[in-house]
Amino acid sequence: xxxxxxxxxxxxxxxxxxxxxxxxxxxxxxxxxxxxxxxxxxxxxxxxxxxxxxxxxxxxxxxxxxxxxxxxxxxxxxxxxxxxxxxxxxxxxxxxxxxxxxxxxxxxxxxxxxxxxxxxxxxxxxxxxxxxxxxxxxxxxxxxxxxxxxxxxxxxxxxxxxxxxxxxxxxxxxxxxxxxxxxxxxxxxxxxxxxxxxxxxxxxxxxxxxxxxxxxxxxxxxxxxxxxxxxxxxxxxxxxxxxxxxxxxxxxxxxxxxxxxxxxxxxxxxxxxxxxxxxxxxxxxxxxxxxxxxxxxxxxx
Length: 301
Description:
Layout (H helix, E strand, L loop, with lengths): L1 E9 L4 H5 L14 E2 L4 E10 L2 E10 L7 E9 L4 E10 L8 E6 L13 E4 L3 E6 L12 E8 L2 E6 L2 E9 L5 E8 L3 E10 L18 E2 L2 E4 L14 E9 L5 E8 L3 H11 L3 E3 L1 E3 L2 E3 L1 E12 L1
Antiparallel strand pairs: 1-22, 2-14, 3-4, 4-13, 4-14, 5-10, 5-14, 6-7, 6-13, 7-8, 9-12, 10-11, 11-12, 15-20, 16-19, 17-18, 17-22, 20-21
C-alpha cells in the first residue's frame, strides 16, 4: 500500500451550503452548536458526573482540527492550587504532545504567573494582542462562562460575557482544541460546545467568486501533489481550502476551511501555493477571484 493524495479544484458559489456549515463567526445561535462529547486523552486522568467532565491531570483534545469557530463552555477550578489552560489551534503528532498554537490561562491570579483569560503564543507568533483582564480576580470554586472566537487571523476570549483578551495577526490558522490541567484538584468542564464558522467564499478582499456571473473561470496550468507529513501518516480525510487566484494566476491569501488534521492542512497549503492558473476573466480582462480547493488524503493500493 502507498499514500496518494487526490486533488480536485472546485469553484462553487456557496461553499457554506455545500459543506453544511452551521453559521458565521460573527453571530451564532445556540442551535448552531454541537456538544463535544468525545475527547482524545494524552496521559490524562478524567472522570465524569452527569454533564460535568473532570480533568484531574494531563491533556484532552478534540478528535478533529478546527479552523474558524466559536467555542463555548463553563469551567471551574476545584482547588486554589489547580492550574488549567485552554489550547487553541494546537498542533502536534497524533500520539504526541501538543506543542504549537495558542494558550488561554484559566487559573490566573492564585499563582501570579498567568493572568486569567490571557492569550499567549506557544511555538508560533502572535503579532498583536490586547488584554484587559476579567472583572473578578479569581475563578476558584465557582463556575465561569467562557467563549472563544477564532476568526481567520483573530482570536478573542470572553469571560462571563466580557471580552478580556484579543490576539490579532496570528500565524496558526487551524488546529485542535484542548484542555490541560496541572496542580491540585483539577479542572471541571460542562457544556463544551462548538460551532464551525461559515467560509465566506465571496468575502475575501471583497472579490467575486470564481464561478460568479460574467466570470470566465480560471484553469490550472501547473499542479503539484502534496507531501504527506510523517506526523499525520495515520490520518485520512479531505482538506478544503479557500484562496484567491490573482490576476496573474498565482494563488494567494490561503485559508483552511475544513481539515481532519492540522498537519494535513499545512501540507495542502504548501502544495497549493505552488499551483498556477490561467487568470479569471471579466469582460476579457484578467481579474482576481476567490476559489476553493478540495484535497483528499487517502490510502490507495
